[in-house]
């Protein structure tokens, strides 16, 4: 199955107004910058979007808005959960018009075995009409999808085309790159690891920092994918402080603060998340001013 999930993808934020409503004007500005900044595809309703705090109708509205303002860029939609049957029902009812793929996180809280995860994803793949990106983020879900399970899933269905890997375990990611079938790609789930992951055979990133710095992030990724590692390394070094600081008090607090500094969004998150502290805000501001 052909798919466009290579290069620089962005895990879009969901901007909010001071009244805690979705701020579509601000989201439009962020999207415009992604298109102009050379990004390759968009991801709506991921972790960075604060998706657990969005209502069902808000999720549909956000996806519709992203599709309408994508300017031809492929759109991926997050649709994970810990109830296989519920996800399949969502897929059955979902309008896939203008959607190029789904990002499906590993089930959280109920902590399935590797066999449970394999069965979960194969059932979803049978029901899903578009390509699937697996999403492994153990720090949030409490479970790690091992390389052998990822490879087994890739071999089980051509609909399963990529994994967004945010485990931070390079040996695990290297095994995926080495043993996965040709149609399957490894995508970095961490900005700070994008360059090393591409060096072992990864196909790009789904980025957080790209919300605020799409041109720099896309340039880094495209240089690395072209084998121009000396140039890519310089960009990586220039952003290393921001890569780390944006996660100092959790995501998306850091990147929303940076977007706020740029005048693009309000510095608002939905409870239980809360804006980052003033000292960390100032650290991010100082690092950003040095970069620009």
Keywords:
eight-stranded parallel barrel, TIM Barrel, alpha/beta, about 290 residues, 8 strands
Residue share in β-strands: 5-15%
Query: What strand order characterises the main sheet?
Result: 1-2-3-4-5-6-7-8
Oligomer: single chain
SSE-based structural type: alpha/beta
Q: What's the helical proportion of residues?
A: 40-55%
- Reported CATH architecture: Alpha-Beta Barrel
Q: What is the CATH homologous superfamily assignment?
A: Aldolase class I
Distance between the termini: 40 Å
Uncertain segments are: none
Largest sheet: 8 strands, parallel, barrel
- Quickly name the level 1 CATH class: Alpha Beta
Q: What is the number of domains?
A: 1
Q: Return the string of H and E elements.
A: EHEHEHEHEHHEHEHEHHHH
* Overall 3D form: globular
Radius of gyration: 18 Å
Description:
The structure is a single chain. The chain is of the alpha/beta class and 292 residues long. It has a single domain (7-227), classed as TIM Barrel, CATH 3.20.20.70. It is built from twelve helices and eight strands. It has helices spanning 24-36, 56-68, 84-93, 114-127, 138-141, 147-156, 170-179, 194-199, 214-225, 229-245, 253-261, 278-291, and strands at residues 7-11, 41-44, 75-78, 101-105, 132-136, 160-165, 185-188, 204-207. An eight-stranded parallel β-barrel has the order 1-2-3-4-5-6-7-8, surrounded by four helices. Strand 4, helix 4 and strand 5 (132-136) form a beta-alpha-beta unit. Helix 3 packs parallel to helix 4 (114-127), helix 4 (114-127) packs parallel to helix 6 (147-156) and helix 11 (253-261) packs across helix 12 (278-291).
